[in-house]
Amino acid sequence: MEFSVSGFKASGIAAGIKKENTPDLALIFSEYDSVAVGIFTTNKVKAAPVLLTEDHIMDRWARIIIVNSGNANACTGPIGIKDARSTAELIAKELDVRTDEVLVASTGVIGAPLPMDAIARAIPGLVSEMSEGGIAAAAEAIMTTDSFPKISSIDGEAGGQPYRITGISKGAGMIMPNMATMLCFVITDINISGTLLQNALLSSNEVSFNRITVDGDTSTNDMVLVMANGAAGNRNLTTEEYDDFVMALKKVMTDLALMIVRDGEGATKVVYVKVRGAASEEEALKCARTIANSSLVKTAFYGQDPNWGRVMAALGRSGIMIREEDVSIWIDDVQIVGGGLGLGKDLEEKAADKMKNSEFSLIVDLNQGECEDFIVTSDLTHEYVSINADYRT
């Protein structure tokens, strides 16, 4: 599939930030002035590149995104801010743009300073490696514990002019974006205003990255950036064209979000936790998130055990008022709980068979209203513990 976007070039190289000689420095460059918008971690501990990029993106214009993996540049104090700013200055000088047109992101181990000498040496090569098809190399360079690069693309049309949206992301653990370590960068050549692009991002984020969880951790570095350079040449968007663009952006971001869950550290299952019959959408989401983040529920997913008692316990501590006797629970189309009571071993055995699949749904009906919501999660495995126990070694 073609991922290149008109007016953008990208690259990804090994700069020596990671211990092993693997790609760890990525660049996305717009040849034209670009509208740029972003969403950032709600964690109170924010990495230096988050703070710098929040400042640089305030005017909603940018030309460059530069990303390193292997080092989060978080909890690094004043030197971290200095290093993030130096990274922006180095790449801005190399590409002859203003420093405030550079957006910086980092991912990796928290608490260690960036190896700025290695980054400075690598930047000329990073620029020389840029190409129209380089976005795939950039997707590989932003990986940490990811097992595969995550990239998605879709084509659209506005004012008779074709445009493309391409996004890349990284994340496998520390995932519960609440705008885990989660990064996403989207580029498009559509001509769109900053206000409309920000609105499109916010609505797309709600149904994609804000509806996934791997382990309930919100990172210090979470960031979603979108750049639109207008190279498609369309004029002002009609309402219908804008709606089509939002649908396309949601598709790309949802694709990437699901890839993150499928690649959850050690994960063997993708589970759609759906809560319906809630008194409000807020309560439905709160219940779904509580269930999806429960370690006991997630280990039951791994064990292919329809242990509905763990689900009931999660509902009871979700913070909303529930009536136990009204709750019904299904695994896909197999009902295992009705009126708050189990429906027997035979149905649980059928549900266990459903849980052998790599993807399935856990459906909860609260029978308190008409509202519903969902969270996509993964199971919790031995491998998740092994990966995170050895992460720094």
Structure in words:
The chain is an alpha+beta fold and 393 residues long. Helix content is 34%, strand content 27%. The chain has 2 domains: 8-262, L-amino peptidase D-ALA esterase/amidase, CATH 3.60.70; 270-389, ArgJ beta chain, C-terminal domain (Ubiquitin-like (UB roll)). It has 11 helices and 14 strands. The strands form 2 sheets. Strands 1, 2, 3, 4, 5, 6, 7 and 8 form an 8-stranded mixed beta sheet that branches. It has a 6-stranded mixed beta sheet with strand order 12-11-10-13-9-14. Strand 7, helix 5 (194-206) and strand 8 form a beta-alpha-beta unit. Helix 5 packs across helix 6 (239-262). The longest helix is centred in the middle third of the chain and has 24 residues, at 239-262. The chain is globular and about 70 Å long. The protein starts with 7 loop residues before the first strand and ends with a helix.
In N-to-C order, the SSE pattern is: EEHEHEHHEEEHEHEHHHEEEHEEH
Structural class, judged by helices and strands?
Answer: alpha+beta
Strand content is 25-35%
Identify the CATH class of the largest domain.
Alpha Beta
Number of strands: 14
CATH homologous superfamily heading of the largest domain:
L-amino peptidase D-ALA esterase/amidase
CATH topology of the largest domain: L-amino peptidase D-ALA esterase/amidase
Low-confidence stretches: 173-180
Q: Which architecture of the largest domain would the CATH scheme give at its second level?
A: 4-Layer Sandwich
The helix content is: 25-40%
Continuous helix count: 11
Mean pLDDT over all positions: 92
Domain unit count: 2
Radius of gyration: 22 Å
End-to-end gap: 37 Å
Biggest sheet details: 8 strands, mixed
Instruction: Give the overall shape.
Output: globular
